[in-house]
Amino acid sequence: MKKMIIASTSTVYGSSYLEYLLPTLKTFFKGVHTLVFIPFARPGGVSYDGYTEVVQKAFSKIDINVKGVHEYNNVNDAILNAEAIFTGGGNTFELVNQLYKNDIIDTLKKVINNGTPYLGTSAGSNICGISMMNTNDMPIVYPPSFVTLGCIPFNINAHYLDPIEGSKHMGETRETRIKEYHVFNEVPVLGLREGSWLSVEGNSITLKGEHSARLFQQNLKPVELESGVEVALR
Question: Is 122 annotated as catalytic?
Fold first, then answer.
């Protein structure tokens, strides 16, 4: 049975890395001694080792050891044998590119579907959907495919932002961009606001955190989902 936390972000304003999620993660990862971390998204171009150190510092607060997947001799075996897995944020294009390059995207999907606990934040959440096509990131590399894990039946738009009332900004809003996507694509999109996450247990997907989320479906009006409700598609 799938067991996932799919979070919009790793860090909310005024707190340290993963701090707002640690109470939830302590329960979610109960019994896990070593977590396999996938650092491929590399926020700000940080090294894999440097990124892993940041994650280790956070997880040490709940007594979990962290080892970067790049530290293993066989990346595929590392995923197959992981007690639990965390994919961090950064650039989704590069993350997906490396998952394909290392030939582990199918293995990652397999172990998640078989019940290995999985945490994703930002880019690591974007890959949980049908495709990565609703990322906000710049296309700094060209992955072999935009198809991702498909562990949930919709796409994620992490860091979703609402229009600011009174703003004089004349550019596209997130909602506008998602509507453009739905001209050509049927896959639903969930706009996940900062500080919110999805709790996935089997086929049940529940919104958690302080904020509502915005669900977009082709040819339907967007719907606000309140925290605590299951995500249901029409």
Answer: yes
Domain boundaries, the chain: 3-225
Catalytic-residue membership of 159: yes
For domain 3-225, say whether CATH 3.40.50.410 is its number: no
What confidence tens digit (pLDDT) does each residue in 111-138 have? Answer: 999 999 999 999 999 999 999 999 999 9
Q: How many CB atoms lie within 10 A of CB 101?
A: 14
Candidates 133, 225, 190; CA nearest to 8 is: 190
Catalytic residue among 8, 125, 159, 199: 159
What does pTM read for this prediction?
0.96
Q: pLDDT digit string (tens) for 44-58?
A: 999 999 999 999 999
Please write down the HEC assignment for all residues of 141-154. CCCCCCECCCCCCC
Helix ranges restricted to H, the chain: 22-28, 48-59, 75-80, 92-101, 105-113, 123-126, 174-184
Catalytic residue among 8, 10, 70, 122: 122
Question: Which backbone phi and psi does 204 adopt, to 5 degrees?
Answer: -90, 125
